[in-house]
Amino acid sequence: MSTLRRLPETVVNRIAAGEVVERPAAAVKELVENAIDADAMRISVTITNSGRTMIQVVDDGKGMGPEDLTLAIERHATSKLPDDDLLHVKFLGFRGEALPSIGAVSRLVLTSRATSQTEAWSISVTGGVVSKPEPSAHPIGTRVEVRDLFYATPARLKFMKSARTEQNHITDTIKRLAMTHPEIAFSLSDGTRMILDFTAQSGTLFDARLKRLAAILGSDFADNTVLVDAEREGILLSGYAGLPTLNRGNAALQFLFVNGRPVTDRMLFGALRGAYRDVLAYNRYPLVALFLELPPDLVDVNVHPAKTEVRFRDANLVRGLIVGAIQHGLAQAGYRAATTVSNSALHALRPETSSTHPNTITSPQRLDKTHSQYHATFPNLNMPHSAPMIETSNQPAPEKNIDARPPLGVARAQLHSTYIIAQTIDGIVIVDQHAAHERLMQERIKTAASKSGVKRQALLIPEVVELGEPGVGYIIARSQELAEMGLVIEAFGPGAVVVREMPALLGDSDIQGLINDLADDLADMNEAVALKDRLGDVCATMACHGSVRAGRRLNADEMNALLREMEATPLAGQCSHGRPTYVELKLHDIEKLFGRR
After folding, report:
1. Residue 301 sits in a domain of what CATH number?
2. Low-confidence ranges of the chain (pLDDT < 70)
3. Is 385 part of a structural domain of the chain?
């Protein structure tokens, strides 16, 4: 006798619930998406016991009549596929499983009033058992009330996390949906206090979106991002990308949306990492909120029941658009660094009444002016690497036209032969000379390599670098590509290479350190990847060994030339690892430190 049988409808629905509603936040997501699809302008969510005891979602959308209520709680019943074409999904919820799945594992009451009707109707589902629609009292819109989630599948409750964790998941879900719909008001309450309350934003899409992002992510995000607005072959990318100096140790504040859906797609996150490769260390993450819009037939949103993963018809096109648009936006930001850098510096400062060791301050006028002046490439100046503890002198006289002072100010002193102190119109700027020049060198080399090629200079005495056989193999395999970047290297026995020519921009560099670091970089790089595709990485390594070092004393002209070039160079606000190249302190902030305000 065959044991094969058809499962009861209630069991089928509970199985579906396991795929669609794995925790309270998933139920909230499905219900809020339904409200958005119903053209709601205000959506209110109330939860009790982090959603386990009760979830209530109320909207002012177009509502439903009794016939639609009956269909809404049946499996695979949806109004969101009018032409039955799964390749043209234009709504958030469309699988037709959310309400019946939730009703199969909870006590669900659905109350709604359509815009064309004078009365509301209500229907309930308890553990999969459906009641008949009954007249009810409710304004235009819909109220969904879910009680005792997972009471019909108690085993699922054992896998719930703490109340705080589950509430955080719900909060994050609503925040993501609110980001992509700034024109809708969202609220979240636990019955006693308001957890979230986002008012509807008006104005242009970009203005409204930035206001909503500021409300969710804080003013630091709004103040320290660049606008992203690009299009390629019918695919639109918009949003905001944080300056590299605004970063975190994880990807929690990276928000990506595809056709209005919040997604956690691996390819998209990889594109973000590629866009910031030249300006962030591998273990730091930028803050971004990006919105991708493309024709429905170019993306499959039905890859995962929760619809958090997508599949693109042309993934390379999408990746290239993201990388190019972000890099263009960051380049347009020029020398800007995040304001959070200055805020962190101010918080770290503590006034002291006395000091055992006086500050080392070197005036630009007292620097040895017999050294070569700064000429675009910072040639080797042969400056001493040690300086007396204290050097004092009269400071340079203030400029007659202070209002004409450039953005990064005018150099006034050098501190510890490492930091340039510049005076601006309304404060001071402190520049890390090594980090700043490293970024300038990287951009020069990258520009030269991508255009006419890097000018080379032959070494009077070729330098031999011992690497070991593996390192030599990595370097020699790329020797032709490295030559195009100005670095001419040949094999020199089984475990060494000889460097015959260097990029002229690097001047008197640490050749041994440069070659060893390049060998390490190439060892980690896929052999199929051309160096031009990783140009920023190679240029960063070269720039690190060819830049002005900390401990080198600079004269006034050299310091001012460095400041002016920073102002004219893209990405000059941060080094290759995302650390700031300068900190700006406003005069009123400094006055606060001393109690003058």
Report:
1. 3.30.230.10
2. 1-5, 7-20, 75-97, 155, 302-307, 349-404, 452, 526-530, 532-533, 546-547, 549-550
3. yes
Cα–Cα distance measured from residue 251 to residue 247, given in angstroms and rounded to the nearest whole number: 9
CB of 175 within 8 A of CB of 146?
no
Percent of the chain scored above 70 by pLDDT? 80
Q: Answer yes or no: do 507 and 382 share one domain.
A: yes
Three-class secondary structure of residue 52 per DSSP: coil
Nearest to residue 584, comparing CAs of 428, 445, 478?
428
DSSP for 528-575 reads TS-GGGGHHHHHHHHHHHHSPPTT----HHHHHHHHHHHHHSTTTTB-
147-168, pLDDT tens digit by residue?
A: 998 877 776 777 788 889 999 9
Residue 190: name the closest of 157, 166, 154, 212 by CA. Answer: 166
> Amino acid identity, residue 96?
G
CB–CB of 111/87 below 8 Å? no
Q: Measured between alpha carbons, how far is residue 397 from residues 365, 394, 402, 412, 543 in Å?
A: 11, 8, 11, 10, 34
| β partners of residue 238 | 229, 291
Q: Is residue 441 part of a domain?
A: yes
Measured distance CA(432)–CA(410) in Å, rounded? 15
E strand or H helix at 291: strand 288-293
Domain-terminating residue out of 198, 216, 234: 198
Q: Are 269 and 414 part of one and the same domain?
A: no
159 shares a domain with 33: yes
Compute the distance between CA of residue 21 and CA of residue 57 in angstroms, rounded to an integer. Answer: 16
Contacts of 1 (CB under 8 A, 6+ apart): none
Total structural domains within the chain: 3
The verdict on 223 and 191 lying in the same domain is: no
CATH number at residue 540: 3.30.1540.20
Question: Do the domain assignments include residue 340?
Answer: no
Bridge partners, 194 (sequence order): 189
For residue 580, the 8-state DSSP code is B
Question: What does the alpha-carbon distance between residue 287 and residue 218 come to, in Å, rounded to a whole number?
Answer: 12
Looking at the fold, whether 164 and 245 belong to one and the same domain comes out as no
- In 9-153, DSSP assigns E strands to 42-48, 54-59, 107-113, 120-126, 129-130, 134-136, 141-147
pTM over 0.85: no
The pLDDT tens digits for 559-596 are 999 999 999 998 899 887 788 999 999 998 888 888 78
The DSSP secondary structure of 302-349, one letter per residue, reads -SSTT----EETTHHHHHHHHHHHHHHHHHHTTT---HHHHHHHHHH-
On whether residue 354 sits in a domain, the answer given is: no
Return the sign of the alpha-carbon dihedral for residues 419, 423, 429, 433: negative
Query: Smallest Cα–Cα separation from 541: which of 508, 524, 562, 516?
Result: 516
Helix-helix angle 205-217:163-180, to 10 degrees: 160
Final residue of a structural domain among 198, 220, 241: 198
Length of the chain: 597
Gap between the Cα atoms of 281 and 259, Å rounded: 30
Enter the tokens of residue 397.
């006289």
Domain coverage including residue 408:
366-597
CA separation for the pair 241, 289 (Å, rounded) = 6
